[in-house]
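Students often ask what a 'structure token' actually looks like in practice. Rather than answer in the abstract, let us consider Reverse transcriptase domain-containing protein, a protein of 167 residues. Its sequence is given first.
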Amino acid sequence: MLHTRVMPSTECSTDHRLVRCKLNLQFKPNPRRKGKPLKKINVSKLSIEENVAKFQAGLEKNLNALPDLDNPTPENLWDNLKSSILKSSEVTLGYTKRRFYEALKTVYGPTRQIQSPLRSSDGQQLLTEKPDILTRWAEHFNTLFSIDRSVQDAALHRILHPSLIEE
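Now compare that with the structural description of the same chain:
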């Protein structure tokens, strides 16, 4: 708080007064996630029966390969089960690709590049085919840049030149 002040009210018989404060607030920036984003397992492959059978066989193999624990606790049992499921799913299903832009394309549809029609040099004909439009642009720029331009000396003398400072 930099400055605090009590504002007097119009009614004198009240205990309630308006308090005005000037504050200097500084907010911390949002923490950014560090490291790589988590990979997601491609569970859409489980819709194929062959992949389901491979996953079940791999999971059974991983669960049978686990060592027997002397003192099994729920945490140890869960860690073993989780690691077995992850190993078998990595091998049989793999990871998904993010495909963010592919999803955008499916939502918004394909983009079409539309070529605007162009008039011919005499202005009578409307050109809509791409080769015709390209030749018309080439013709336009050739006429634009091939003209010999003459500059009058009086116009050149009217241009202000900054003075040179010699050291």
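One point worth highlighting: The first strand starts at residue 3 and ends at 7. Ask yourself how you might have guessed this from the sequence alone, and why that guess would often be unreliable.
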